[in-house]
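F.,

This is the one I mentioned.
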């Protein structure tokens, strides 16, 4: 019986660890985007945009060389928006699309690894 329980525990642990999404925090201020980490594993990724600035900021993500743009809505000062995405390996450009914020420095690059 103890071998069976050990096997069930092992399988359950493997199942949950394979399906737990990666997490990425993105802090937006005037005029910077700061990522909580430089890379995440491919698959499900929970991205949390925290607006720590004074102005409203949004977030856009696009795989470099890709066409699909993931859009997070404008978030007020002190606000937070969380979204789960499924990302494939590659490098992704992140930016704030409000006015000229990206040109003023609100951009970053995230690596999504296998």
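My design for it:
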């Amino acid at each position: 019986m103890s071998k069976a329980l050990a096997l069930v525990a092992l399988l359950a642990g493997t199942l949950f660890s394979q399906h737990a999404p990666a997490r990425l925090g993105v802090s937006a201020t005037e005029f910077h985007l700061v990522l909580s980490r430089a890379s995440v594993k491919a698959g499900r990724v929970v991205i949390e945009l925290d607006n720590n600035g004074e102005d409203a900021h949004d977030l856009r993500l696009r795989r470099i060389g890709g066409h699909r743009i993931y859009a997070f809505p404008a978030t007020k000062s002190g606000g937070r928006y969380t979204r789960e995405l499924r990302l494939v390996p590659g490098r992704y450009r992140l930016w704030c699309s409000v006015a000229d914020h990206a040109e003023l420095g609100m951009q970053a690059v995230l690596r999504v690894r296998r």
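The two ends are 37 Å apart (CA to CA).

Talk soon.
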